[in-house]
Design brief:
With about 250 residues, the protein is mainly beta. The protein is built from 3 helices and 17 strands. Helices cover about 15% and strands about 40% of the residues.
């Protein structure tokens, strides 16, 4: 059913991934036999979610100003438990915004009336928080950073999948907001097969250490699960949070 989808994809075209290169390019053979180069909207290493030969889906944009008409949207992974994974890192923030507008996250309650995004904060206001939620004067503002999460093993999702100095900085800036605000680190688990979340210590031990420090100081960690389908994206609820990588 599509009625419970939080986000609906435009009509997608299936194909097979041939290769991903230079971060932003992916060669894909469509079911028609045509080979295209699609935009890859993901700058990370994409560990485990860019295996050549995998079934993928792309969207088509006929804007003549675009250099590449197709955008890589999803990939099918895990032969024993086939699972669609979201590739487009431009979507998580859009979907989180939709969920906030619908007040779908019970952990945040209804303590906010106003939603702002890309709000300057941090040292010398040089960073931008993904979302700032505010209510009346009796309610502390809620600052939310969103992290797209696709790395997984044995139904456990991990973040990060590489060393991220930017992510480390965000944790430090969230901790600096305490106690005057309610900082939240929201992990967007961009696949439906993970019921548990843990810090990716093997990829970035410094990030894992900072995340545990942030939790101890009062930063709220919300790893939310999302199911990816060829039709769209469905919200599944909160994953179990482990403080250490199993």
């Amino acid at each position: 059913m599509t009625t419970d989808l939080l986000y609906c994809y435009p009509p997608l075209i299936s194909g097979i991934l041939l290769r991903r290169y230079k971060r932003f390019f992916a060669d894909i053979e469509l079911t028609s036999g045509e080979i295209i180069t699609a935009h890859c909207p993901n700058t990370g290493p994409m560990t485990g979610v860019c295996t050549p030969g995998s079934l993928v889906q792309v969207s088509l944009n006929n804007n003549p100003k675009r250099k590449l008409a197709h955008t890589w949207e999803t990939i099918l992974v895990n032969e024993t438990q086939p699972t669609w994974v979201g590739i487009n890192t431009g979507l998580p923030n859009r979907i989180v915004r939709l969920a906030l507008e619908k007040q779908l996250f019970p952990e945040l309650g209804d303590r906010y009336r106003h939603i702002r995004w890309e709000v300057p904060y941090g040292k010398n206001k040089k960073s931008r928080v993904d979302f700032l939620l505010t209510g009346d004067e009796s309610v502390s503002p809620i600052y939310i950073e969103v992290k797209n999460t696709t790395l997984a093993q044995n139904n456990v999702a991990f973040f990060p999948d590489t060393v991220t100095t930017r992510g480390q900085k965000h944790l430090q800036e969230l901790m600096a907001l305490l106690p005057d605000a309610k900082p939240v680190m929201l992990y967007f688990i961009n696949r439906g097969d993970c019921s548990v979340f843990a810090p990716g210590d093997r990829c970035d031990p410094t990030y894992g250490k900072l995340l545990r420090e942030a939790v101890e100081k009062g930063v709220k960690v919300l790893p939310y699960r999302f199911e990816i389908t060829p039709q769209g994206i469905r919200y599944l609820g909160l994953a179990e949070f482990l403080l250490k990588q199993p």
